[in-house]
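Morning. Coffee machine broken again, so started the prediction first thing and wrote up yesterday's gels while waiting. Chain of 107 residues, entered below exactly as on the submission form.
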Amino acid sequence: MADTSASRPQIAPGYTGPRFLGAPVGDFSVLQTILLSLASGAAAFFAATFLAIMSLLVATMFGHKVDFSIAYRWVGVPVGIAVLVIAGVFLTSALVSRIRRSAQTPR
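Came back before lunch.
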């Protein structure tokens, strides 16, 4: 097989900081860190709620009588909060390490 790695586009090839799924995530400001954490939590909430509602619809098709508020209370909210916390910790640690690294380098 031919080596095609040279023809693949590189995302920020000179970047040496932290990456998430190949994308550089270490150069965010405080506001960007907060917004990305909130957006991640909201996206996870909506995705988990959608999947829970679809699962409850399947259960309804088989004759079960279900309360659809379960999708929000027991699935959507816990997943959204967990992703919000995980994204916040990860992005904040990347921000703090970048700030500490830039403070240690002499100007």
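Residues 42 and 80 are 6 Å apart (CA to CA). Going to sketch it on the whiteboard this afternoon.
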